[in-house]
Amino acid sequence: MSRSLAMLEARIGQPLFVKGKRPLQATPLAAHGRAMLVASRRATDTVKGFLTGTRGLVRVGGVPFFMDAMISRMVAGFQNVEPDVSVQQSYGNLPDLMAALEDDLIDLAIVPIGHIEAGPEFEFLELLPGRNVVACRTGHALTRKRRLQLSDLTESPWVAPLPGSPLRSDLHSILLTIGLSEVTIRYSGGSLMSVINYMSETNALAVLPFSVVVAQRTENRIAALPLELPQPNRRLGILRRTGRARSQAAERLALHLTTAFEDLKHLIKRHENAVAWGR
After folding, report:
1. Are 234 and 166 in contact (CB under 8 A)?
2. Which residue intervals define the domain HTH lysR-type in the entry (predicted)?
3. Pairing mode of beta strands 222-224, 132-137
C-alpha cells in the first residue's frame, strides 16, 4: 500500500497525506479525490443508463388530438417508471412528421396512416385500428332521441377538424353519406381541449376518433352518438426511420406505448359493446 501511494504521489507531483501526522491526515488534494471518484461513478452510471435506455432524451412528434388525449398521459406513466428519461413532444401532421424523421429532428412519430404506405425508408408499428364517431356534449338532445338517423346530424352546427387533419376528409365522407355538400361550421382550427370546451357549452357536433372519446370518459363532457359511419382505412401507429441507429430510451418508450395501447384496446372494446350502434 505504501508503495502504491508513493507511486501515485509521484505521478501527480503532490503529497496525498500530511507527513508526520498520526493518525494519517489527508491533504486537501486527497479530499478532491473523493469528489473525483463520485463523479467518475456517476459518469459510469450515466453511460450505462444511455446504453440500457434508462437515461436520455426521446423526441416524439404526433398528430395533435392523439397526443393530447392519450400519448401525453402514457408518457407520464413511462416517466413514473423511468424518471431519468426526458421526453420532448412536438405536433404535426403526417407529411411534417415524415420530414422531421428524415431530418433526424424526432425519434418517433405517432401518426395515422391510410392506404398510402410511408415507403421502405420508414417502419410502421400499428397501435390501434381507425374508428371514427360523431361526438357531442353529454346530454345533447340527439343522445336522447329514440331512433337516430344520419339525417338528424343536419340539425346541429359542426366543429371542423384542424387544417391538414385526416378527420377533415372523414367529415366530407360522412356528409356524402348523408347526401349533403356542406353543413354549418361554427368553430374550426382548435386544439383538442378547445374543441371539447366548445362542444360542452354548445350543441355542436364533431368527428372524432372513438379512442379519443373513450380517453375523455372520466371527464364526462363528451359522448359518442350511436351511429354507424363510413370508416376510414386508417391505422394509428408509431412511425420510425429504418436503417438508422436508435436510442435505447426511444425503444423503451415505444415498447411502453405498445403495451399501453393494448390495454386501451380492451377498454375501447368494452365501450363499443356498451353502445347500441345504428340505433
Report:
1. yes
2. 1-27
3. antiparallel
CA–CA dist 131, 114 (Å, integer): 12
Q: Are residues 170 and 203 in the same domain?
A: yes
What CA–CA distance (Å, rounded) separates 148 from 27? 86
C-alpha cell at 51: 446504453
CATH assignment of the domain containing 150: 3.40.190.10
- Residue with more model confidence, 36 or 161: 161
Regarding pTM above 0.90, the answer is no
Asked if 156 and 183 sit in the same domain, the reply is yes
Residues 158 and 217 in one domain: yes
Per the structure, the complete domain to which residue 29 belongs is given by 2-39
Report the DSSP pairing between strands 56-62 and 132-137: unpaired
Confidence at 58, pLDDT banded by 50, 70, 90: very high
Q: Are 229 and 132 in contact (CB under 8 A)?
A: yes
Q: Which residues face 222 on adjacent strands?
A: 137
**Distance (Å, whole) CA 90 – CA 108:** 10
Instruction: Answer whether 85's CB lies under 8 Å from 252's CB.
Output: yes
Taking 70 as the threshold, does the pLDDT of residue 37 lie above it?
Answer: no
Report the C-alpha gap between 277 and 279 in whole angstroms.
Answer: 5
Please report where in the chains the cell 508513493 appears, as a residue.
Answer: 6
Highest mean predicted confidence (pLDDT) among 88-102, 230-244, 264-278? 88-102
β 132-137/206-209 pair status: antiparallel
Contact 226, 277 (CB under 8 A): yes
Beta carbons of 61 and 108 less than 8 angstroms apart: yes
